[in-house]
Amino acid sequence: MAQFFSIHPETPQSRLIGQAVGLIRQGGLVAYPTDSAYALGCHIGDKIALDRIRGIRQLDKNHNFTLMCRDLSELATYAKVNNRVFRLLKTYTPGPYTFILEATSETPKRLKHPKRKTIGLRVPNNSITLALLEELGEPMMTSSLILPGDSEPLKDPYDIRQTLQHQLELVIDGGFCGTEPTTVIDMIGDEPIVVRKGCGEF
């Protein structure tokens, strides 16, 4: 049965943030608000939790997973970023954008696209998410909370708890945060390509 924390969207309670991160470190799955929509998150090093996300969302092996990062310096640890890419990232972060970039050796192999060796990365503009990342001290593996057969993410934390209460350890109620997933931008080629249009203007 998932725990349910109501966390203030602008001034997150440090006690609840600490408890949430404790659950993540123990292998728990959390549904949490971002600057685009609700998402699923787990510890970057937890293979079992990652497989559980695959099961909930029915994702195949070619899905590009995303690392939620605190800032650009953390992002650059896990992706190869040249000057051109860095300038674009600086313009659009923090914000509701996921960038597909070539992964570095710091990125766990199971998170990379099996053929392209890419990883999705993003820096959110959401106080709860940033508080979780700050307490965690490293990126969080994340995926949009879009269930099989749905075209949009789940948006109501009470609906999330009712639907997934036996598959998650925690649902964070951070209020309404939007109904669209991030805009996904592939940065591998010479020019950026929007591969999914979401709530970010690009």
UniProtKB/TrEMBL annotation:
Pfam families from the UniProt entry: Sua5_yciO_yrdC
Matching InterPro entries: DHBP_synth_RibB-like_a/b_dom, Sua5-like_dom, SUA5_domain
Sample GO molecular function, one term: double-stranded RNA binding
Coiled coil residues, start to end: none
Gene3D superfamilies: DHBP synthase
Limits of the YrdC-like domain: 14-200
Alphabetized PROSITE patterns for the sequence: YRDC
Protein known as: Threonylcarbamoyl-AMP synthase
Originating species: Candidatus Endobugula sertula (Bugula neritina bacterial symbiont)
